[in-house]
Structures are given as C-alpha cells and as structure tokens.
Automatic annotation (TrEMBL):
<dbReference type="InterPro" id="IPR050469">
    <property type="entry name" value="Diguanylate_Cyclase"/>
</dbReference>
<dbReference type="GO" id="GO:0005886">
    <property type="term" value="C:plasma membrane"/>
</dbReference>
<dbReference type="GO" id="GO:1902201">
    <property type="term" value="P:negative regulation of bacterial-type flagellum-dependent cell motility"/>
</dbReference>
<dbReference type="InterPro" id="IPR013702">
    <property type="entry name" value="FIST_domain_N"/>
</dbReference>
<protein>
    <recommendedName>
        <fullName>GGDEF domain-containing protein</fullName>
    </recommendedName>
</protein>
<dbReference type="GO" id="GO:0043709">
    <property type="term" value="P:cell adhesion involved in single-species biofilm formation"/>
</dbReference>
<dbReference type="InterPro" id="IPR000160">
    <property type="entry name" value="GGDEF_dom"/>
</dbReference>
<dbReference type="Pfam" id="PF08495">
    <property type="entry name" value="FIST"/>
</dbReference>
<dbReference type="GO" id="GO:0052621">
    <property type="term" value="F:diguanylate cyclase activity"/>
</dbReference>
<dbReference type="InterPro" id="IPR029787">
    <property type="entry name" value="Nucleotide_cyclase"/>
</dbReference>
<dbReference type="InterPro" id="IPR019494">
    <property type="entry name" value="FIST_C"/>
</dbReference>
<dbReference type="InterPro" id="IPR043128">
    <property type="entry name" value="Rev_trsase/Diguanyl_cyclase"/>
</dbReference>
<feature type="domain" description="GGDEF">
    <location>
        <begin position="454"/>
        <end position="584"/>
    </location>
</feature>
<dbReference type="Pfam" id="PF00990">
    <property type="entry name" value="GGDEF"/>
</dbReference>
<dbReference type="Pfam" id="PF10442">
    <property type="entry name" value="FIST_C"/>
</dbReference>
C-alpha cells in the first residue's frame, strides 16, 4: 500500500502528478485498487471535470471521491484556495465508491442499501462518508449503518463551501451531488485500519437543559429561553453578520451514550433560536465550551503516539473548521505532528463522523479525526520517532494561561455550587435531608415505583412529648436527642436508596423505595426499639416515638400518601397512647 498526496493549482500540475504516480505504481509488485481523493476550494470547482478526466485517462480503473471544502490538508500543511489530489494504491485490498442523492433517495433508504452491501462484504474494514447539504438529514442514514459489524471503522465529515444556507458539493468519478453523500468502502482481509480522535475543548459555566427543538437541527430553547440569550449574556456575542465567526469556537458540550460531543452553531434566527449542523435531543444537558490551545496540541501529540505504534502506510485526516479558527497560524503545528508517520491528506469539515464503542455512528464538532491504514502486519517496520512538542505563538501561549485561569476558577465555582446545593438540601442539625428535598425525593421515587409497578413505603415519625424534653432538660438536650434519632435512622436504612429526612421540629419522614409493608413495619419497629435503648435522657428516662407506616397504592399522589401516613401516625400517638407503630 502506498499513498501520494499532491497540492495543485493547474491542470498542467495535475498531469505532472499523474505521470509521477504512474511511474511509482509500476514499481509496486501488485496493484489491486486505486482510490483518488480530491478536495478543492470553491474557487477551483471549474477544474473538477478536467481532474476526473485527467485521472481516468491514465488510471481508468481508479475510484474517485471528494468534495468542495473549506480547507484542504496535505502532509500536515493547510492549503490556501488550492486542490488536494491524493492517490492511494492498494496491493491486495479493494475500494468501491458509491453516491447517494438524498433528493432522489431518502436518507433511511440509502442507509439501508449501503448496509446490505456491507453485510454482503465479509472483508469490509472501513467506510469513508463525505456529505454535502445544509442541514442534511444524515441521522437516519447513520442509524441504519450502525447495525453493521462493529469492527468496520467509519470516518468522514460534512463538507461544504462555507456559504451559510448553501449546499456544498460531493462527487465521484461518475456523479456530482449537492444534497447527499459519497461513500468509499475499503475491503480486504489484510487491510488494517485504526481511527483516533482528538478533542481539546472544555466545559464552561452552568449546565442547561435542551427544552425545545424544531426538528433535529434547530435548537429553540435552553431552560425555556432562546439559546441566543446564552451567547449574549456570557460571551457578548449577538446576532450580527459576524455571528458564525464569533460563535464557532464556543460550542455546546455534552455527553451521549458515554461519548463527549460538541455542537457549534451555524446560523442564528431572528427569534433567538439557532441552527446547527448536527442534532440535539430534548432533555440533553449541555454547557458552553472553550478551546484550550495547549490541550489541543497535547491531545494531538497523544494521538500521533498511538498512531505511531500502529505504523500506518497511509493517513486520512478530517478536522473541524473551528480548530483552524481557534489555532490560526498555529494550525499547521497541530497537523504537522503526524506528518513523519506516513503521507496524509484530508479536509476541514463542519461536522466530523466517527463510530463509538457501542457501534453507533455519530456526528460531532470541534474534533480532529485521524485514520491510519496499512496492508499486512507491522512486523519489521521501524518505529517512528516522536517529534518534540511544538511551541505555540506568544499570543496563544497567553491564551493558554488564561484558559488555565478560567478552568481553575470554574472548578472552584463548581465546588462552591456543590457545597451550596448540599447545604440547600440538608437539615443542618441532623444531617438528614430537609423537608423540601425529602418531598422532592418522594415525588420522584413514587413516580418511578408506579411506572415500574414496584412497591414503595413510607414512615412518618414523631417524638413523644418532645416539648416536655425541651422544657425539662433544655434545648441542647432536645437537639442532642434529635441527632441521636437521625443517626439511628441513617444506620438502619439503605444508603443511596432509602431517604430518611427531617420533616420539621420533632417529626421525621422516611421513604423506602422497593420496600413492601412487611419490610417497612420491621424497620419501624427496629427504629422505635433502638430509640428506646439509645436515646436515653441524662436522668435515665427513655425517649419514645410514635410511627405511622403505609405502602403506596397505584393511584396515590405524594399528598394522599402523606395524608395516609399522617393518619397512621395520629392513631399511634393519640389513640394507642404513644410509643407505638401503626401500619395502615
């Protein structure tokens, strides 16, 4: 396997490149397949037909795949309005190219068709997907393909010409598509593929919940408010002509199925909602994120170390355009880290495609994806030398220091917020949940128990003659009595499952999810007995309690359950003469 990437600007340069690789191909012991990847600036699109003809005149069997893109990559270098033509020669593996126009065939149908091809090809090792089309509905396509064998690597990205609201262009040697995908399927029992991704963005500020969407790509509300308000309030970014440039490097950051994802806005509507190139789901919790240049370089170093051990013969690269915008003149320092490993080519995307450990094919932003390929074993190849960490330009070094400051202060703020939240939930005297948090837990646990048809019981408890204890022994003794009772409740309920709380004054309330009436009765009787034994007053007098026990019915609400527990407590205290457990 050999790869030869070129940067060209004219058809004459293309002809020279084709002639050079023809001579190189003649030196190979065997040639099973040829893939030519083409990525071009929108200003060069008039060259496309001539490029296709020029390649196939010399390599008629060549499969061509490519796109108009916002940035072209060749051997760790970023082109300025150029064309990348990348020749990949295989000695044993096969490459097949397909095109799916979503205006002629629905996304779901196209995915199902490609899935059948992959299921029939037992040697399929990797699939490259390049898409074009503003807000292309690619999720159904990927949902179908996620059912393919887990070992198949998926990579690629959303390419377009950078003009908001306009479709880009993807193509093969036969077709040109402005609303769909082109696909390359790599097959071979001796073909080895490794995919690695690098992130580098960190969460910033508070967590927000997606509360309203218009389709998959239009985020209408976060916590009930338009997302533009978040950008205006925290970043000072308003809905102007420069919105995309200003907002691109501040994506929303979240996790889905254990995978960290990011979404950068593509456009802001007049009502404050935002259009994205990848999907959100109602209920997902997101935060703003910021890029750390130092972290990005460190992640790229780690990525190439892993790729070095794989020892690739060819590298394909897809990187988010936001990384370019953030790193600026330091962009090539990230890209050049891997150039000593093997020849590489790729493009900058508005969405990167990758597969997680669960087999789900996902769209992300802000990511650098590197795919290494080789034919056969890596035995006998020399290990590649890891280059030194590149130095960032001075202003980005300053940015790294500011990022570190933001990260540290954010961590301190999060810790303070955790402590404040804890204080808001906990009764300070006893350390149990306070009434508000106990009620909130009761609502959630009752709803869950009824949905799953599981039992749930509650205890409501009152200290007998507590006013007498306070009046006779003093409030300090009364407080100590409540602490002892709280400790007994904590020691005799399941940590992380049951919810013992202080209802107020000398009243306690315990929620027992998963517990039927018999277990609840046993716990209540044990707690009452232990209070008699352990919460002894200084003159030897015994402290007693009255406890009401009920199990939730299928039609109970928190209010009706509380009233029934209160009724059982009343019977234990007023009718049966205190120091009793009454089960209703």
């Amino acid at each position: 396997m050999k790869q030869f990437p070129f940067a060209i600007n004219t058809i004459k340069e293309l002809q020279d490149c084709v002639e050079q690789v023809r001579e190189e191909s003649r030196q190979m012991p065997a040639l099973s397949s040829v893939l030519v990847s083409v990525f071009m600036d929108t200003s060069k699109v008039q060259m496309l037909t001539d490029i296709q003809k020029g390649v196939q005149a010399v390599f008629p069997e060549a499969q061509i795949i490519g796109a108009v893109s916002s940035g072209e990559l060749v051997n760790g270098r970023l082109l300025d309005q150029g064309v990348v033509v990348n020749f990949t020669f295989f000695e044993k593996a096969a490459v097949r190219v397909f095109a799916y126009d979503f205006q002629e065939r629905k996304s779901n149908t196209a995915g199902r068709d490609l899935l059948s091809i992959l299921q029939a090809d037992k040697e399929a090792a990797a699939v490259e997907v390049i898409s074009a089309g503003f807000h292309l509905d690619i999720n159904p396509f990927f949902k179908q393909l996620s059912a393919s064998r887990r070992k198949i690597v998926f990579f690629g990205g959303l390419a377009d010409d950078g003009s908001l609201g306009k479709n880009g262009l993807v193509f093969t040697h036969k077709e040109q598509i402005r609303h769909g995908v082109v696909v390359a399927v790599f097959s071979g029992k001796d073909l080895h593929v490794q995919a690695k991704s690098s992130f580098g963005w960190k969460p910033l500020g508070r967590t927000m919940t997606v509360t309203r969407m218009d389709g998959d790509f239009c985020l209408q509300e976060l916590d009930g408010r338009p997302p533009l308000e978040v950008f205006e309030k925290y970043l000072g970014i308003r809905n102007t002509e420069s919105f995309l440039v200003e907002a691109l490097t501040f994506p929303f950051y979240f996790e889905r199925h254990g995978t960290t994802l990011a979404r950068h806005p593509r456009r802001c509507r007049d009502d404050g909602s935002m259009m994205f190139g990848a999907d959100f789901r109602v209920g997902e919790q997101v935060r703003l994120a910021y890029g750390d240049p130092g972290e990005i370089i460190d992640n790229a170093m780690s990525l190439q170390e892993k790729m070095a051990s794989f020892k690739p013969e060819a590298i394909f690269v897809v990187s988010c355009v936001a990384r370019w915008m953030l790193l600026g003149s330091d962009t090539e320092k990230e890209l050049a880290i891997s150039k000593h490993l093997a020849s590489s080519a790729g493009f900058y995307a508005y969405g990167e495609f990758m597969r997680n450990e669960n087999g789900e094919i996902m769209v992300s932003n802000m990511t650098l994806v590197t795919i290494g390929m080789r034919e056969g074993l890596s035995l006998g190849r020399q290990s590649n030398v890891v280059p030194p960490r590149p130095k960032l330009n001075q202003h980005r070094t300053l940015m790294t220091r500011l990022v570190h400051f933001i990260e540290t202060t954010s961590q301190e703020l999060e810790e303070s917020n955790r402590k404040l939240k804890h204080l808001a939930q906990i009764d300070r005297l006893t350390g149990l949940f306070n009434r508000g948090e106990t009620e909130a837990n009761l609502r959630e646990l009752l709803k869950r128990a009824q949905k799953l048809n599981e039992p749930l019981s509650v205890l409501m408890m009152d200290v007998d003659d507590f006013k007498v204890i306070n009046d006779s022994y003093g409030h300090a003794v009364g407080d100590d009595t409540l602490k002892k009772i709280a400790n007994i409740l904590q020691m005799n309920t399941r940590r992380g499952s049951d919810v013992p709380g202080r209802w107020g004054g000398d009243e306690f309330f315990v929620v027992l999810p998963g517990s039927g009436i018999e277990r609840a009765r046993i716990i209540a009787e044990r707690v009452g007995r232990l209070i008699n034994e352990q919460a002894v007053l200084e003159d030897g007098s015994m402290v007693t309690t009255s406890i009401g026990v009920v199990t939730a019915a299928s039609d109970d609400t928190p209010d009706t359950l509380f009233k029934r527990a209160d009724g059982a407590l009343y019977e234990a205290k007023q009718i049966r003469g205190k120091n009793n457990v009454v089960v209703h």
